[in-house]
Every structure is written in structure tokens, then in C-alpha cells.
Amino acid sequence: METTLIENLPQVTWVGVFIKAVMILAIISAVAGFGTFIERKVLAFMQRRLGPMHVGPYGLLQIAADGIKLFTKEDIVPQNANKIIFMVAPAITAATAFIALSAVPVFPDFTIPDFVPVIGGVFVPSIASDVNVGILFVLGMMVAGLYGPLLAGMSQANKWGIIGSARTAVQFLSFEVITGFSLIAPIMLVGSLSFVDFNNYQAGGVTSWMVWQQPVAFILFLIAGFAETNRTPFDLLEHEAEVVSGFATEYSGMRWGMFFIGEYANMITISIIAAVVFLGGYDAESSIGWLTIIFKIGFFFFLMLWVRAAWPHIRPDQLMWLCWKVLLPIAMINIIVTAIFVMI
Amino acid sequence: MSLEQFKNRNVGVQNYTALDLGKSPETSMEKFSQVVKRTFKGELFVGLKVVFGAMGKALFGGDMHTVKYPFEKMPISPRYRAIHDMLRLLESGNYRCIGCGLCEKICISNCISMDTRYDEEQRKEVSEYTINFGRCIFCGYCAEVCPELAIVHGPRYENAAEQRAGFSLFEDMLTPIDKLNLQQEYDGFGAISPNADENIKKTPLAY
Q: Is B109 in the same domain as B51?
């Protein structure tokens, strides 16, 4: 696993990285907005409703209408809130979600054609920064994102916010352990933390996918991923039936929208990690390789909506029980068994 | 069971029969095996299958339950008591009301007021007829008492208004003469709604 695909490719300049960063920011924001539309539609169909239908054909322009509404809403900071922290907290969630995306492969690499003025001939890489500890960096950034809900809930002088931030602390911190441990076994097999090496390790088609070697780790990672992206069986942070809106109770307008975009960007990140680490990633050689990874990411995104339509919430104490008494021992056993096999 | 036993509020001394809920696990091994059993039972995946099937049926089987209300309306039961209609005779086109005044008499909220006179052929005709919908409670007695089926409850239920007082004149409620062929006959008090067959569900005999 010494040679990576990056070495065969043209020189990555800072202009290319900059273009890539702008691309990620623009496209993932748009995709996150579109994700809200997809979520509403899929949930509606599963409940035999129509979903948004009136703005544009099949309600497609609902995203634009929502965006206009979020951008033009009054920015309210509650009276007794800690104003600076209250205003900064949503930016933490959104920013860390996008920083995490800088180290995962998003979209194929390409060279800008020469006829484009100024930036013609610039090579745009598929990963904005291919750091050799990619997985650690992504997980670390997603964990840093927990400061968003945590500070938001504590700064807003609202009891629901306090409960929401307390749940943030317990849920995100404990499930971060599961995410890390579930990924350790695949990392031991591959022997690298770079996403490119993961992709190359599984290059031999469907049978060489990591999910067949590490099914337990795959399921553990999915469960932990749902918990970390605050998706339905574990969305205790803003569980409406119990804590109004949890950490987001006092937020409205674009500040709330930043939480929303951050959450959807995290969903995309988790989907990308699951697709690259367990389901074979992208196929760099074939021309439709990037379609396959988009299909896989779409499947995981759909799975999150599907589960939301079907399954009920669990209580916080059940969540903790599941994390520390069930998933953690299973993850440990999985690591030990994998280690024994690697040694043999 | 006598009444005294029902009135006994001291919890724990009543003579209740416990339901058979099965054995709950006691030792940690039993608890563990229950968790394992429930984990691999696959009930969660049954849930996933159900909602996916519902989505398929909604998208491709026409089993969508949304009614886009202002554009589509559910059929309304003939028993529904909405704004009144005055019907005409189909043969001559004259209104059916004979001016007997029974509806005015029976109206319990005193919202109907009518005036009659003799026309040139010495037949009774309605000169004034008003219903105050600010007072009307839509009890339906007027339609029930009418000997000629002249006043009935029509299908116009969208009668939200900005002010409390709202009057309807005889001419407003009367079937327009050019729409006489569209006049709906009142089906009677035992009538079922037109889509009753679709709404009937099978009795769950399994329970």
C-alpha cells in the first residue's frame, strides 16, 4: 500500500485546493438543502402523503422558498442569553461539518480546460487535502462539531436548551467512542488512515468490500453514525415530544438554518465514510466509478430517512445502556478477534 | 363484584386478577438471552418493510391519502347539515315552498323569518324569506318539518365569515332556474354518503 493514486496525478496547487473548497462549500450546501426536500418527500410518501407540492413542479422550488424565509427572518437573540456564544454556536456546527468534508473524497478530480481565463489548466483534486490521517481528522472534526449544540444549549437561558446540551454531551461523546472503535478494525486490516488506501484495498470488486470482512464493524458504525448525526432512533438532542426543540429552542432564521445545514453535511460525511470504508468506495479506473459512489452515498442517505419513517425514538437511558453495555463490548470483541486474525 | 369493592381505594387490598403477561427475566443470563432474542427477531426490519411497502403503494398503487383541499373535496354525506337550499318543482320550475310557515314556527333559534301574501290567482306566495346564519345552529328541524321538501340542507359548508351576522335571502338559496337540471334531491335522513363503500373496512376478526 505504498503507492497511492495521488502520486500518478498532476501537481496539486493551492489554486486547485481553493477551487475545490469553494466547490465543496457551494455544492454540499445546495445538496444539503436538496436533502431537506428529499427527506420531506420520502417521509411523506412513506406516510402516504404528498409532501411539498405547490412551489414549483412537484414542490422542487420549496428549497428556494425555505431559503428565502430563513434568510429574511429576524435574527432574535434572547434577553438573558450569552450573546457572543449564542451567535457563534451555529457557525461552529456548520464550519466543523464542512471542515470534516475537506478530508474525504467528494466528486471526481478534473483539470479545468485551458480556454477558461486565469484558472485554465488548474488541476482540482478529489480530496481538498489528502492528509495521511484522513479518518482521524474527519472523526475529530465531527466531534468538534458537538461544541455547536453544547454551547448553543447552554448559552440561550432556556431550560429545554440546557437539557438539549446535556444530551449532546452524553450522546455525542459516548457514541464517538463507538465510531472510533468500530473503525479501528478496518483500519488494522488496511494498515492506513487514508481514504485513498481504503479505496485501493477494496478495488477488487464487490467481493473485496470491507463489509464482508467486517460486518459487525459496519453495523456498529451505522448505529454510531445515526447517533452522531442526531438522526431518528437517537435524535434526543431536539426531541420535540420531550424537550421542545432541545438545543435549538431559541434559534430561528439563518442561525437555525446553519445548524440544519451542518446536520445535513454531517449526514453526507457519514454516508461518504460508510461508502468508502465499507462498501468499496469509488472505482477510479472505470468511467462510471463516481456514479457508483454517488449511488452508495444516496443509499445511506435514504437509509437515514427510511429509518426515520419506520422506527421510534429510544429513551436517553436506553441510549446510554445501548452504547456502553452492548455496543462497546461488541466493538472490543470485534477488535480483538480482528487483531488475532491479522497476527495469524 | 359489589359496589363496596369498587369504592375501596386502598391500593393493594383489592382482589384483582393479574393478567398473564408471561415470565419476566430474573437472572442476568435470562435478561441477556431476552436481549439477544429481541435483537435478532427482525421486528425492526418488518417495520422498514412496512413503510417501504407503503411508499411503493403510495407512489405506484395510487394509495395516496392526501386530499388537496381547496382543489379537491371529499364527498359529503347527505345527512350533513350545511347552508340551506330552496328547491324547485322539476315539472313547472316553480319553487316548492307553499308558505305554510312551519319552518319559522319550529326554528328553535328564531333565525327564520318569512312573510307571505296572496297573489292574483289567490295562491299563497312567499314575499319575504330570510335566514339569519349568525343565529342558525343548523339543527335541521326546518328541513325535517317541511311538508314539501322545499327547504333542505345543501352541500355548501364553507361558510366562514368575517362578521357574526349573515343573512341569506330566499332568492339566494333558491335553485337557479337555469340549473334546474342539476338540482339534487334530498336523500333523506337515513342516507349514506356516496363514497360509503370505499370507506368500509373489513371487521378485524383476528381480534
A: no
Structure confidence by residue, pLDDT tens digits, B4-48: 777 777 777 777 777 887 788 888 898 888 878 877 788 888 888
Mutate to test the interface with B, among A42, A43, A45 (most CBs of B within 10 A): A45
From the list A50, A309, A326, the residue facing B66 with the nearest CB is A50
Report yes or no on B168 lying in a domain: yes
* A310 reaches B (C-beta below 8 A): yes
Q: Which residue from A47, A49, A311 is facing B47, i.e. has the nearest CB?
A: A311
Mutual orientation of helices A289-310 and A14-46 as an angle, nearest 10°? 40
Domain match, B93 and B159 both: yes
Tell me: ipTM over 0.85: no
CB contact under 8 A, B57 and A50: no
What is the tens place of the pLDDT at every residue in A225-278? 888 888 878 877 777 777 888 888 888 888 888 888 888 888 888 888 888 888
| Interface contact B32, partner A, CB < 8 A | no
Tally of domains within chain A: 1
Using DSSP, state whether A165 is helix, strand or coil.
helix
**Beta-carbon contacts of residue A52 (< 8 Å; ≥ 6 apart):** A37, A40, A41, A44, A59, A62
Total-model pTM:
0.77
> Three-state SS string across B41-63, please?
CCHHHHHHHHHHHHHHHHHHCCC
Domain encompassing residue B46: 28-60
Measured between CB atoms, which of A46, A49, A310 is closest to B66? Answer: A49
